[in-house]
Each structure stands twice: as structure tokens, then as C-alpha cells.
Amino acid sequence: MSVYEDIRLEGHIIDSLLLPRVLDDILERGGDYHILHFQVGRNKDDPSSALIRVTARDDEHLATILRGLRKHGAQVVDQQDVQLEPAPADGVFPEDFYSTTNLETYVRLAGHWIPVEWPEMDCGIAVDPQTPRAWTVPIAQVRAGDLILVGDRGLRVIPLERDQASRVFGFMGSAVSSEKPKHSVVAKVARLMRQNRAEGKRIVAVLGPAVIHTGAAPAFARLVAGGWVDVVLGGNAVAVHDIESAFYNTSLGINLAEGESVEGGHEHHLRAINRIRACGGIRQAVEQGVLQKGLFYELVRHHVPFVLAGSIRDDGPLPDVITDSVQAQQAMREAVRGAGLCLMLCSMLHSIATGNLLPAAVHTVCVDINPAVATKLSDRGSFQTIGVVTDVGLFLDRLVVELSESRPARR
After folding, report:
1. Cα 320 vs. chain centroid, distance in angstroms?
2. 122: part of which helix (H) or strand (E)?
3. Rounded to an integer, what distance in angstroms lies between the CA atom of residue 158 and that of residue 26?
4. CB within 8 A of 265, min separation 6: which ones?
5. Per-residue pLDDT reduced to its tens digit, 206-221
6. Which secondary-structure segment (H or E) carries 145?
7. pTM score, whole prediction
8. In order of start, what are the domains of the chain with their CATH numbers?
9. pLDDT in tens, 151-208
10. I need a labelling partner for 258 at 20 to 30 A (CA). Which of 5, 224, 246, 328 fits?
11. Which helix (H) or strand (E) holds 130?
12. Which residues pair with 386 in a beta bridge?
């Protein structure tokens, strides 16, 4: 005997292709549907709505289908309050915990919908019914007795109404597009940055070492000096390469001006690390006058915080690098809160890690010469990512020019 549940979709469900995606999902999961009511918005900006009956072979099958429809913003008509269970131990969720998406989410408590703070994928939802308050919590941070949402009733997930054509600005390599599209793409990014500044939202930058050894660091430093960057995320390598270039004008032993290897240059990065370690850290090296130029010198001078997350392959590392991956993840998580825009520049691993922490509503611009980086971000769940395939130096130089006429207020 089949079972069913009625769901409701609301918003721009036609032009965003949300309705056909929901219907396809139902069929692909072995269910069936019947559209009970469908109302189309009269004008372009008016929302549409649909009431759909979802049919499945049994309760377990129906629950699986409905769980998959949450990401599309489907709301069960017969709503109930959330179900909560205490965490059985530190670092352990209840067995049937709800695994979060990065979309705006609400939970129903005592008949009222309250927002879930800090939307982030692959977490649980902790709830304090007394406050009332709900927030995402990583599995490593949950403590025994914390009330965690289980199942999927009493949940409302708000999908992004996104235009597929706006997701990817274009391929900007010289072989595939003209100068005019390049200028247009960077101008769009500049407008996004101005918009976020006007709304009081933070701008986060994720940097890979290629920013340094491609010669793009001076352009990024101008963004820092102009007040366009609120926090920088990266690893040991980007800082080491930058400091090596400040001390020796090389990056991995290659002269940045001439592009040729320097005798003894393979030792430069270790000598740079050693000099900073002797000072106690990057900030201390600037304060002591040891580090007098470079990107990280500018970050310290303009009071822009940075989080450096370590990896197993790091040399040194620098004293500023957080070598505990869980601690590094939490530091990054706290650094991106309040962000409205994230620039990801030539770093696949740190970009994906940061994308995992960002709400879907955060504008995310990924610049890399390798198109696979933006693709991996999108496949991993950061589907809001705008991929820009180009040389990062060309991109940053053009971005500085676009922003030069509108300096934001200093923080």
C-alpha cells in the first residue's frame, strides 16, 4: 500500500528551473507525484507556488524522497515541531541526526520558525528551546547532552534562486575570449565588492602560493592598502613564498624579476622561515623591522588578520601556522562569519576547505588558471561559486584599476 505527503514550493520556481528539478528528483528516487495546485506569478517579479502530492511505496521510502527534496526548499504542508535528542557523548551526534546544507535554514519550535545561525554544510543543528536558539555545530565540537535535531521534520530550507547563466562569468584565458569579456567579468566582481562594502559585509580572500610566484602579490597588496580585504586565509606556503621574496627577491629559488633560478636559491625558503622563527612570528618580524616589505608586511601594517592552516608537507612551519587541523578549521570558521564575498585565488585545497564553511548566500569568486578548481568547488557543494579561468596576476591588476575610483571607508 502506497503512502503520500503533500509538499509546497514557493518562489521563482519556473525561471530558476526549481520545479522540474523537484519533479525529476521524485521520479529518480522511485516515487511519483501529482500536482494538486499550481499558481503562476502574474508579473516577472511575482513568485509562483505549487502544491505537490509525493507518493512512495512505504514510510521509509517517503522519508528518503522528502529528505532529498529539502535542498530545493520543499516544505511539508503538515508541519510539526523539530525532534531533539541529546548527544550521547562528546564528539558524537545522535544516530538519526540531520546533516546540514549551506542553505538558509529554519527550525520549528513551539509552533514558531526560528533561523539556524551560521549555515554550513556537513554539520548538525544544536537547539536551545529555552532561548529559543538554533545553530550549526561541527561533529568535533558537540558535547554530551547537547540537544541535537534528529530526523527532518520541522525544517525549512530556503533554496538560492540562481540564474545558471550568472554562475560562471566566463573563461578568460587569452585563447578563448577577447579583452572585452575580460574587462566585463572583472567589472562585475568589482561591483560585487562595492555592494558588499555598502552593505557592511566582510570580504574574505583565500590565497595560494601561486599568487606570489606569478608576481600577483603587489596587486593584492594594493587591495589590502585600499581597504578591500578584511581577512586572509591560506597555508604555510603562501606566507613563506612571500617572505622569501621580500628577503631574497626569489620564490622557491626562482628570481621573480628574471624568472631564472638563483645559485643557492633552493635554501632561501628555509632561511626565510628560520629568520621569522627567530623573531617569534610574522607580526613580530614586522614590529622588529626585520620584515620590511611584501604582502604579509602589508597585512600586518594595515591590521588585516590572517589564518594560516598547516599541512603534512609544510617546511618549518612558520610560528603563525596552526598545525592542528581541527583548530585551524575552527579559526577559519570564525574568520569567515559575517562574510558577504569570498575571493579564492589559486588555491584548490584551501578554497575547497573555505567553501565548506561558507553559507550558500556568500558570493564566491574562484580565480584559477585551472578550470577544475571551480568545478570541484561546485561539485563539493559550493554551487554558488563563480568560476573565472585566467592568470591571477592579470585578474588582480584589472581589479585594482576597477576599484581605484571608489575606496571604501576604512574599518
Report:
1. 23
2. none
3. 19
4. 248, 250, 252, 253, 254, 255
5. 999 999 988 899 999 9
6. none
7. 0.81
8. 1-77 (3.30.70.2690), 79-159 (2.40.420.10), 164-403 (3.40.50.10690)
9. 878 888 887 765 433 444 444 433 333 344 567 888 889 999 999 999 999 999 999 9
10. 224
11. none
12. 365
Measured torsion, CA atoms of residues 353, 85, 110, 152, in degrees rounded to the nearest 10: 60
Cβ of 197: how many Cβ atoms within 10 Å?
Answer: 21
Pairwise CA distance, residues 284 & 280, whole Å: 6
| Stated length of the chain | 411
Element (H, E) at 186: helix 179-198
- Total Cβ atoms within 10 A of residue 15: 13
CA-wise closest residue to 2 among 54, 50, 51, 52: 54
Q: How far is CA 245 from the centre of its chain?
A: 29
- Of 36, 40, 73, nearest to 55 by C-alpha is 36
Contact 396, 207 (CB under 8 A): no
76, 7 contact by CB (below 8 A): yes
**Alpha-carbon radius of gyration of the chain:** 24
User: Residue for cell digits 589559486?
Assistant: 346
Distances (CA, A) of 353 to 70, 126, 132: 24, 22, 30
44-58, 160-174, 267-281, 358-372: which is most confident: 267-281
